[in-house]
Amino acid sequence: MFLAPAALYIIVFQVIPLLQEIYLSFTRTTLLNPTRSEWVGLANYAHVFSSASFRQTLLTTGVYVVACVVGAVGVGLLVALLLNGKFPGRGVARALITVPWAAPGIATALIAVWMLNPQYGIVTRILRALGVPVGAGGVLDDPAWALPAILATTVWQLFPFVCVVILSALQSVPAELIEAAEMDGAGRLWTFRVVTWQVIKPTVGLLALLMTIWSLRRFELIWLMTRGGPLGSTRTLVIDLYAEAFDAQRLGTAAAIGMVGVLISLIVIAGSRFVGRAAERTPR
Amino acid sequence: MHATPRPRRALFLAGAATTALILTGCSGGAEEAEGPVTLTFAASTFGDPGLGPRLQAFVDEFNASQDGVIIEPASVPFPTFGQTVLTQMGGGEGPDLVRFDMPEFSTAAAAGLLEPLDDVIDAAELGLQPGPDEYLFVDDARYGVIHDTSNYVMFYNADLVPEPPTTFDEFLATAQATTQGDVYGLAFRQTQAEENGVWQDIFNYVYGFGGQWSDGENLTLDDPKNIEGLEAFQTMYDADVIPKGADAATFRRMFAQNLVGMELNNGGYVVATKGTNPDLNFSVAPIPFPVRAQGAIMAPIVVNANSEYKEAAYTYIEWMLQPEQQQKLQEALGAASMATPTERSAESLEEMPFLTVFDELTNTSAPQIVVGFGPQTPEIRSIVVREVIAALQGQQTMQEAMERAQAEAEGIVGAP
Amino acid sequence: MIRRFRLGVTARMLIVLVALGLAVFPIYWMFTTALTSDADLFGSQPRLVPDFSQFGVFIEAVTEGRTLRWLLNSTVVATGTTLLALLLGIPLGYALSRFSFWGKAGLALLLLFTQMLPEALLVVPLFSLFRRFDLLDSLPGLVLANTAFVLPIVALILKGAIDGVPRELEEAGRVDGARPLGVLLRINLPLIAPTIAAAAVIAFFHAWNEYVFAVTFIFSREIQPASVGLAGFVGEQGTALQTIMAVAFLFTLPAVVFYLFAQKYVVGGMTAGAVKG
Predict the structure, then answer these.
(1) If you ran DSSP here, which 8-state letter would residue A250 be given?
(2) HSE on the CB side for C166, CA within 13 Å?
(3) Is residue A29 very low, low, confident or very high in pLDDT (cuts 50, 70, 90)?
(4) Rounded Cα–Cα distance for residues A150 and A29 (Å)
């Protein structure tokens, strides 16, 4: 009774469409005639894997996801530790730090593009004033800088979420333990590693998994900022999938790309401790 | 919401204990509608801050002129216009009326998503302009009628560029001379984020240097003339006379602020520019390339084959094609040309004497499709733009870019 | 010793201030850009403070445009998604935490797995599914589509929280003769309220931001949500940067307010789920 409604819901809205996509990935189907499919076996997969640009896409996706997770969790953790102590205005600081997370993705992309505008963007102006050699086309037009720029925007958007969650986890670090450790003459770093880290480790693990999941499928931000360019330097799997399905109108190949993403996801999930433990825990 | 509910509208309830899908209402066939029917009309024009309200006013006039049909703009934002409408139509839905761009028009027509209009439109009787009209046939059937066409010309800021260039060398020299301080001589689109825009912009260089994307039977992407045109494009890019990396939204505002000297653009720009800065002293001239050939936005209006109100849709098209309405639509859209020949009013000519420049180019303008490969145009466009940008970025020469594009595109459409 | 401590505090305060500045600046810049004239926008020096003589852009956005309509639609979609996701997610989370049944590990895996499916992958099959059920072009339809994407994560977070509720408490309830539903409602729910708030925030933000489904499934302008409306300001020939920024700012505000409101619950909430999960 508890399970049925939600399970039914997920089957109808996720599993059935997913099965359809799996089928599509073995067919030649166009966006304009999605019901008329021609079975082509593994041709779509062969096509996808034989293209050099797809290997670049996989690499870009990997770099993006790893950097997002490291960046967001790292910055979030750092800021959380800073905000954890007592200081005047702590409440206000904690509230303000969460603002980026609440900003809608499209609004974020729009303001980021404007701030990075090659001629008038405030960030570009600051970088140039600091002597950073930003090309005439600005960072988003530079294959070396476009991905870092998108990463910075993503981290800006995500770190507050990490920060808030870790802050709450830090509340459960027993103060006596820290005091005891310091009494023993332990350095700050050591105390952090032995006491604090042990307590917040599971939280950080879950956050890292969430960040991975969300980054693998992030779409609007990248699409609106660079559309995968320049020179494919920001073309992640989802961008590739979208371009294939809606620009080239080849649903079959797009589905095959999607399945590759799904496979990667499966590997990530299998590798994560989170599910390992979730599956282990049987009710008493 | 709608004045008339869609016949198959059903009610959906999510129960608390069970997620039950309860379908009510009638199913299938059209019920006898009471009152006027409501049609949706998708046009990217509606979202334009300058042109949108003008087209809306025109449609409102139709709504007021009779009481059988109400036309409502559909909600499709410009950045994902093609993808969204095609997805909806492929899924068996979509707006009743659509103003398409040529590449998407060809794709949709070839896929059987559009209603043939041969029985509704009599070109001779209506006096349709034959030039643009010939592109609206796919396999000898008519799938649309011109909503507006707009030829590409050279817009220039008369304060910054007193004498418009007439040759490519002058064009380059003028751009270089105008580029000073915060002012740029020229602006065009050159980033992946504006793929469609880059395609529109390079089109003028390719055709203006005597090239073409195909001979109608085979792709000719790597034709020497095309490469010459694209090298001219690269010359302008490398000359540091454009705001690099800037998107159209930005550099068009810059043009209106006297910060850009020249831009190749179509007639829709006239209204947008005047809306942004009514005092801007600008004019237009033919594009100063060796061959008098340029792109044109040819936007047909079509009837969705999925539409349940085709008759009502025809009513609108027939109304729109009446001479009086054609005149009004032209006034609304500024510099565009209509399906039928129209006379520009004395007052618009007095306000904008350059309007005749647009009209004189109609016979040398081509739609921005790969002729003979209309349905594959979006894909070919994607390949060409990607390779051109790689060349601009110094990864390869234009020659290499077009050879690669040719090879890849042939793989899609089939080698000759 | 004391001196060192003070220095530490000052340095920390400084870093905190920098971090805060970086966090808030883009939002401030959105507001400032909306209130900057074209001439200043494209000037050689940036204008760093809002020009309040330009305030008309906000008034216009609210009175002339459809901004309020969009925000209302987005609110309906986001609230609906939040409620439905909780309604379905709480029992699912409870079942996952407390009951033993065939395929449970598989279901948990499936839940995580669905989190990785991008909207773009499912939009075409969902379109035909929604068409069959006649759910296109309706806000409830959008609620259903969005719920499908947040339900799994909501359920997983709630499962973690329920794992943390001592079974002894439930057993005490059961002795009193309460059925499982009663136990869930009376004993678990109050204890995991913070986690519910956290899950609500995630669901709300997801639906508030969603673009791909909204743009494809909604045809009528009257029920367009704000994400689509905002994208609609990007025009073919002209884009009013100030108007876009003004609307983007107005679009951001409610989400920020919603978050600030829910924040004190969330802070406790996510941990309850995360630590045990």
Answers:
(1) B
(2) 3
(3) confident
(4) 33
Q: How far apart are the C-alpha atoms of A15 and B297, rounded to whole Å?
A: 43
Q: Are B306 and B92 in contact (CB under 8 A)?
A: yes
Using DSSP's 3-state secondary structure scheme, residue C155 falls into: helix
User: For residues B185 and B154, is the Cβ–Cβ distance under 8 A?
Assistant: no
Give me the residues paired with residue B41 across strands: B73, B97
Measured between beta carbons, the chain A residues lying within 8 angstroms of C97 are: 283
Which residues have a Cβ under 8 Å from the Cβ of C130 and sit 6 or more positions away?
A: C136, C141, C144, C145, C217
What DSSP character marks residue C164?
T
Average pLDDT, chain A: 84
Residues 51-90 of B with CB under 8 A from C: 51-52, 72-80, 84, 87-88, 90
Choose between A163 and B8: higher pLDDT.
A163
CA–CA gap between residue A245 and residue A254 (Å, rounded): 5
Amino acid in the structure at residue B333 = L
Is A24 within 8 Å of A251 (Cβ atoms)?
yes
β-pair type (B260-266, B184-187):
parallel
- Beta partners for residue B145, in sequence order: B301
Which residues, 6 or more positions from B405, have their beta carbon under 8 angstroms from its beta carbon? B221, B222, B380, B383, B384, B387
The answer to whether the CB atoms of C230 and A107 lie below 8 A apart is: yes
Among candidates B17, B244, B378 on the partner chain, residue whose Cβ is nearest the Cβ of A249 = B378
pLDDT of residue A264 exceeding 60, the answer is: yes
Q: Full-prediction pTM beyond 0.85? A: yes
Name the phi and psi angles at B413, rounded to 5.
-90, -10
Q: Which two tokens stand for residue B46?
A: 């509606």
SS3 (DSSP) at A27? strand
Segment holding C82, helix H or strand E: helix C67-98
The pairing of strands B260-266 and B69-73 is unpaired
Please write the tens of the pLDDT for every residue from A74-92.
Answer: 999 999 888 887 777 777 7
Residue of B40, B75, B89, B247 to mutate when probing chain C, most C C-beta within 10 A? B75
Read off the tokens for B107.
């794709």
The two structure tokens encoding residue B86: 């095609």
Chains touching C (3+ CB pairs < 8 Å): A, B
Residues 6+ apart with CB under 8 A from B371: B212, B213, B214, B216
**CB nearest to C134's CB, from B8, B79, B91:** B8
Q: What is the largest CA-CA distance in chain C?
A: 76
